[in-house]
Each structure stands twice: as structure tokens, then as C-alpha cells.
Amino acid sequence: MNKRLPLGLGFVLLVLPCSLLVAFTHYPAVKAIINSLWNNASSRRPSRFVGLENYEAMIADDKLMQVLTNSGLYALGTIPAAIFLSVSMALLVNSRFPGTGLMRLSFFLPTMLPLVAVANIWLFFYAPGIGLASQMMNAVGLPTINFLGSTETSLASMMVVAVWKEAGLFMIFYLAALQGVPENLKDAARLEGAGPVRVFFDVIFPLLRPTTIFVAVNALINAFRLIDHIIVMTKGGPDNSSALLLFYIYEVTFRQRDFAYGATLTVLMVALLGALAAFQFWVLDRKTHYQ
């Protein structure tokens, strides 16, 4: 027998999460838009309305253009790699091989580590001369590379850290999706003569597209909000080669104390994330099957 909740209790359960959403998401977003239309106040000069002057300054900001380029390259490098690696790990631990429980733990372990701890682990790995990467390269006769101190390798080195950290978490989502794929569909494909690769691409992967949308959107958000690793490992250098958008917002707002321009950059980041997430949904959702 179904029992309905009292109207008052249902209203309370609805108002509480909506209030938290408004207080910590919608209100800060609206406040950032308002602050972006005013100039930065000082002890001698109060803030005044300047309209779109902050946005005009943003368009002329050469450092911002470099930061956006870095963020775009970072997203293009980490999102496909994280998805490919997480799907591969999920397929491996979903098999009936012995020791799959230990493999699941080892794959998921990087996700459980604090961000600062991960950054320090990879600082030791990348350390020129004494780090594990340098020792491995010296063992095969290759010259030592300063991965974090070179403009050519610093951003790619940060991408490797992000993929290593995120893939284990995304593997859990793909593992749950794989366990929900009906066995009769795979058996029917095998009866038709399809091999393992054909079964995956024609049967399994189409059913994983809802999970792929979820993972891609979260990986996109993670790519633009990364700041902990940058502060610990590179501080945006060398020559801003590893600076990403949120790190630049942090520098402008809290180091340069330019709160108005920081609010303008925040509006830009929210608009970019919303547009890119909508594009991902539009592209991936068109061929997605929901059970």
C-alpha cells in the first residue's frame, strides 16, 4: 500500500535543497555578473558602475588568450584520454580473471588520495636528475628532461597527472554501466558471428553513451576548475605555459586583489562551461539510447 508524504513535509524536503542551490550556486553567479559591471574599489576610491569596461579589458588581455589556449589544449588532451583509459580499466576489472578485486582497488586508489598529496607524488616523479622519470630515461640512454620546468612539456605533464587521478573514478561509472548491459544482447551478437571487438562497438559501447555523456561533462568541468596541482607543481609557469583559467582567476582576484576583473573572468568561465556542456549534450545525446 502506497503512503503519501504529508504536504508540509514534502514542501520542507523540496525547499531545503533548493535553498542551498540558490545560496551557493545561483546567487554567487548573479553576484559575479553584477560585480563585473563595477570597477575595483580601493581605500580612497569607492566602486562605481563602469558597464562593459571590464569585458573590453578582458578582450584585450593577452595573458587571458594564452590561458584560454592552455585550457582548451588541456581539455582536448585529458577528456578523451580519461574516457579511453577508464573504459579500458572497466572492461578489464569486469572480466572473470582472478584478482579483479585487487585491480579495482589499485585503479581506484589514485582517486582516494588528496589533491596535494598527488601533486607531491608527481613532483618527485618529475624531479630532474633524481626523479623516477629521469632515472627511467637515463636507464635507456635518453637525456634528462625538466618536465615541469620547460614550456614545451609542462602542460602535457599536468595532463598526465590529471588523467592518472581521474580515470579511476570514471572507471567506477563505466563498471556499473557494463554490469547493466543485458547478456542476451551480447549472446545474440556472438551467435551472428561477431567477435569481441565487434560486440563492444556495436552492442556494448552504444549502451555506454549515457555514462559517456556524464563522464565527458564532469571531465570538462574538472579540466577548467583545476587549481590545486598547478599551485603546488608549477604555479602556472614557466612563462604561463601551464596556467589554466581558474588559476588565472585566483591570481587576479586574490593576489592582485582585482575583484571586479576576477568577477568578469568568473562570468566568462561559467559561460564557457555552460556552452561547452550544452554542446556535448547536443552532440552525444542525439545517438544515445536510454533504457
Descriptive key words:
globular; mainly alpha; MetI-like fold; 291 residues
Please give the number of β-strands: 0
Q: Largest sheet, if any?
A: none
| Individual helix count | 13
User: What is the CATH superfamily classification?
Assistant: MetI-like
> Gap between N and C termini, in Å?
27 Å
| Average pLDDT | 86
What is the gyration radius calculated from CA atoms? 24 Å
- Portion of residues in helices? over 70%
Return the domain count. Answer: 1
Helix and strand succession?
HHHHHHHHHHHHH
Would you tell me which CATH topology applies? MetI-like fold
What is the CATH-assigned architecture? Orthogonal Bundle
**In CATH, what is the class?**
Mainly Alpha
Low-confidence stretches: none
Please tell me what the overall shape is: globular
Task: Please explain how this structure is put together.
This protein has 291 residues and is mainly alpha-helical. It has a single domain (56-287), classed as MetI-like fold (Orthogonal Bundle). The chain contains 13 helices and no strands. The chain has helices at 7-35, 53-59, 62-93, 100-112, 115-126, 132-139, 154-179, 183-191, 196-207, 209-225, 228-233, 245-255, 259-285. α1 packs across α13, α3 (62-93) runs antiparallel to α10 and α12 (245-255) runs antiparallel to α13. The longest helix is centred in the N-terminal third of the chain and has 32 residues, at 62-93. It is globular and about 80 Å long. The two termini are 27 Å apart. 25% of the residues are buried.
